[in-house]
Amino acid sequence: MVTTVRQQRDKANKSWPMRGEGALYPIYYTSWEEAVAFCEELSRMTGEAYRLPSEAEWEYACRAGAPAKYYWGDSNSESVMKQYAWYEKNAYDGDWTSPHAAREGTQPVGQKLSNAWGLYDMAGNVWEWCSDWHSENYSNSPSKDPRGPSSGLYRVLRGGSWGLGPWYLRSSARLNLSPVSRYNLIGFRILRDVK
Questions:
Q1: What is the pTM (predicted TM-score) of this model?
Q2: How many helices (H) and strands (E) does the chain have?
Q3: How many whole angstroms separate alpha carbon 133 and alpha carbon 61?
Q4: What's the rounded Cα separation, in Å, for the pair 144 and 73?
Q5: Which of 29, 74, 104, 129 has the greatest count of CB atoms below 10 A from its CB?
Q6: Farthest CA pair distance, the chain
């Protein structure tokens, strides 16, 4: 799917503003607005319905049925975390310990262990935009399919990144930024609505 999505993106617009290192790497340096525009264009080109996940959908997919702090359990041991995620200890030069990536920054997807549902890189590598506006009260939301507020100033990101520590790899960790923000730590994951 990664290669197909990149090919569709490149075909749709040669000057697409998002960056990436190649077909095996996540797209990064992407604003929420660009991620939504990408989903809309991909939907138009394929006839399928693609979109960003809601914050609740993202966390549900990340946890894959696990109630623990991380999708692999509660261990924040460096030796365990390095098996599942690219983060400051193995992908950021300032904190590298052995073994580590060949270079600092985003890393090829699918190189670490997946969660129980076979999803890779749900923790680390790049933060992922969600469709929701940010709410301080997310933890008090209804337990069944909660939705964010209908408006706001900031959009939600989930998953942590290659340049941050273990706390941000938790399944419940959240970040919020303006929808026009772009950083080399930010990308996105799409989902396809099944009719």
A1: 0.87
A2: 5, 6
A3: 19
A4: 23
A5: 129
A6: 46
| Bond from prior residue into 99 cis (ω within 30 degrees of 0) | yes
DSSP secondary-structure letter at 133? E
| Best CA proximity match to 160, nearest among 80, 99, 92 | 92
- Tell how strand 127-133 and strand 186-188 pair up: parallel
Contacts of residue 90, defined as CB under 8 A and 6 or more positions apart, other chains included, come to 82, 96, 97, 99, 100, 101
pLDDT above 60: residue 191: yes
Measured CA to CA in angstroms, residue 95 lies from 26, 99, 162 at distances of: 22, 12, 11
Torsion angle, alpha carbons of 110, 162, 9, 158, to 10: 90
Q: How many residues does the chain have?
A: 195
Closest CA to 24 of 48, 51, 6: 6
Torsion of CA 72, 116, 111, 192, to 10 degrees: -130
What does the DSSP 8-state code read for residue 179?
T
